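Appendix B, Record 12. Input sequence as logged:
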Amino acid sequence: MLSSPPGTVLCKPVGSPRKFLAAFVIITLFVWLFLIAFFGIVLAAIPVLVMVALFVLVSKNSLLAMMRWNQPTLEISSTSYAIGSTPTIVYSRKSKRVVDIVSCSVECLLVCEERVTYTQGTDTTSVARRVYESETVSPGQGTAEGLVAVIELDISANRGSPSFKLRNNEVRWFLTVSASGPLLPRDSHTFPIEVAPVLDVRHRAGLQDT
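Logged structural output:
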């Protein structure tokens, strides 16, 4: 997708595998240099190799996806969504090589999470609680560049609150999206969305101003 239709924006996922990989390389290099000072090059290499092996084992899906696919994007509204709305978004992901996608599906988990931070004495604690979840599975379609899927969200009118952020209290909405099918990467990505303190027009019937 070269550009977004009017009223929409392209949203990128939170976090970057490349930044995570760069941070790991820097930390590993620092640990290696620290160990060299006490144990020498040969002995210092052993724990470093263990760290690398564990990293590859844990992150192999993300590493393989990074080599073969670009980061996915979501085409979402340029304005906040109303409570109780059922908006449609578009998921797309481009491949770095030619891939013939015959069939696939895209799983999307919509989450409203409340985070509270409180202090007891000198200790500060943050507690997160999911107050709403809605999962959808949408059919995907292969394209010349990768794949695309149209996803319908269900932003509850009865559970969850509008997005807001205060010093000790925050409500955030986000999507966790993954695709499944032959030749597709087994990774997932998180996209933030904003929900406004406005009730969708479908739920206003019968309501009167007070």
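The CA atoms of residues 9 and 35 lie 48 Å apart.
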